[in-house]
Amino acid sequence: MEEILTRCGYRCDLCLAYRPNVEAYPSNQQTLSDGWHKYFGFRIPPEQIICDGCMANEPGLIDTACPVRPCVIERGYANCSQCPDYGCEKLVERLVVYEDIAARAGGAIPEEDRTRFIAPYENQRRLEQLRREAH
């Protein structure tokens, strides 16, 4: 699957909740429910974990209250890296940095867990790289 970058810099193609990934591996829903709870502190019932990704038109989303998607669309950008207000409070609440999560978890996170539960959402580095490449 090709890389699919969301408005806030998450990667749909890596996310276990992304519809094609759930359809290929339905057990991802329970796995992800458990992983999100362990590393991010929230739990979504497994049967509710399926997402079309915010780049789709009229998508079915897990996070229907996301403030980033409508903002980026309204401003006409592909993602937050293009915005002159990069780092605004809407984005800051969505930034994921591995080191912060590892610190909250009490240390190093097993590589398999990082790949499944954290890497798809590690957006700060992605967005900052895109900003550097654009300038």
SSE topology string: HHHHHHH
How many structural domains?
1
Overall SS class? mainly alpha
Unreliable stretches: none
How many E strands? 0
First-last Cα distance: 28 Å
Regarding quaternary structure, what we see is single chain
Largest sheet: none
Average pLDDT: 95
Broad shape: globular
Cα radius of gyration in angstroms: 15 Å
Strand content: under 5%
Helicity range:
40-55%
Which features characterize this protein?
single chain; 135 residues; mainly alpha; 7 helices; 44% helix; 0% strand
Describe the model.
The protein is mainly alpha-helical and 135 residues long. The chain has one domain (12-134). The chain has seven helices and no strands. Helix 2 (28-40) packs across helix 6.
In short:
With 135 residues, the chain is mostly helical. The protein is 44% helix and 0% strand.
Describe how the helices and strands are arranged.
Elements: H1 19-24, H2 28-40, H3 68-75, H4 89-92, H5 98-105, H6 111-118, H7 123-134
